[in-house]
Amino acid sequence: MLLVDDEQAILAGLRTIVDWSKYGFEVTAEAANGREGVKKAKECQPDLIMADVRMPGLNGLDMISEVRSFLPHASYVLLTGYSDFTYAKQAIELGVSNYLLKPIDTQELEEALAGIHQKRKQQQARQLLQEANDAPEEQLLARLLAPSTDSELAELLLDKLEMPWDSYQIVLANRQEEQGDSRDEKERARDELALYVKANRLGIGFEREGFIGIALNNVQMNNDGHSQWLLDLFRRHRMLVSAGPAVSDYRELRHSYEEARRLLKNPFYYSDDESPIMGVPQQFCSPLPKGAESDETDRDELDQIRQKILSYIEAGNMKPAIEWLDRSAWRMYRERMEEARIKSWYAELVKEAKQLDANASNDQPSKLGVDPADIYKHPSFRGIHRRVKSGLSALCQSRLSNQEQALPRLLDYIHRHYNEPLRLETLAELFHYNSSYLGKMFKKQTGESFNCYLDKVRIGYAKQLLKQGQKVHQVAKDVGYPNPDYFHAKFKRYVGQSPSTYRSSGSK
């Protein structure tokens, strides 16, 4: 809108006297006299002009008379003092919407603006109906999805489109990759989709912002089982597809569109290699598994979780390994962690898990069925998680296939992790045993208690390090004894001399 007054104080007050946006207007230009007002009106083409009657040079009435020659459909409001009331008749003849007296009464101004706003909406509705008689459905639907379309216009559009449905949903699609035939393939998919949707009265097809779209009658879609046909179409044409939430109110249709658009622009987080549709409820795809809620996950914590998962895999204990994997995935997904960081975490997990796979070390196919390089090439978070989860489950299962290997796995674990704070209860949890039973089985098959066996393993490695000339306190720490005095006592008990003496003498 354009404000015209020769008093700067009046102009400043008009800017803030009411919330112009409430009535669909925004102050885009100002002028200090009638002649400048004509110039500004030509430049900004306002829908509403508010002007003082008495101004030097070209007065408000003459200005409006001139502006009406090129803005016949604009609305006009005149401001005047009591002595100017003789201008009222001329103002009416010029089609001025309102004639307000100074000082301006805020309530009176708001009533005038509300009337102008309502009149303009009615004019837009009439114009829209005239245009709708010849406009294709696609254009009308695009207008319905526009943010500027108010509820009254939306209702007219819905009636014209025959869309007073119980439930609405927007689905958008685009080609997964740019190829030489991408445009032709996209057009074929669009035409095929439009024909099917129209023939089965599922909704209305459209194209917007480079996406193929469908405004679905969601109730009809679910009741008649057309989902599989859509899935086949999208797969056949290699389409990446997203769906906004189903909504029961047409006023939420724009929200469904925006959500579908957001999903399509972030395919790594939302796409699924088993289902090409992102964001659709269970009939199309399932969400990533949820884990415990937590604060933002830092890199160190994720690394610790990865080691915990590997420990369970090494023990052949599948259930907690998979639970921690799911929990990690949910955290990364919820925090929208960078794609590169997510792939790096999974690739490192696969790399370390392969080291636990006996088959892989003997040049046989790995039970994992996935390599770190595969992770970096994969386009979707869900797909990565599914493949790694399947591979880790298979690896755990293979380690459990021979119950006679339970103790060798436990002993191997001790030799790999002797420098960590190992306890029988911790290992019992890892290997999915009762701690009392594990202790008895351990002593029966080794002839020693768990603690005695662990001490001997640690002392054995300590002797090797001392032979290499390492310092006693560092050796103690490296083999799992953070207290040097405790290490000294243990070493002397099993070896018969102190660590420093052993180091100096070079004894075997």
Automatic annotation (TrEMBL):
Response regulatory domain ranges (all copies): 1-117
Places the protein is found: Cytoplasm
CDD domains: REC_YesN-like
Top-level lineage group: Bacteria
InterPro entries: CheY-like_superfamily (IPR011006), Homeodomain-like_sf (IPR009057), HptR (IPR051552), HTH_AraC (IPR018060), Sig_transdc_resp-reg_receiver (IPR001789), Tscrpt_reg_AraC-type_HTH (IPR020449)
Leader sequence residues: none
Classification via Pfam families: HTH_18, Response_reg
GO BP of this protein: phosphorelay signal transduction system
GO cellular component, one term: cytoplasm
One MF annotation (Gene Ontology) recorded for this entry: sequence-specific DNA binding
Protein name: DNA-binding response regulator
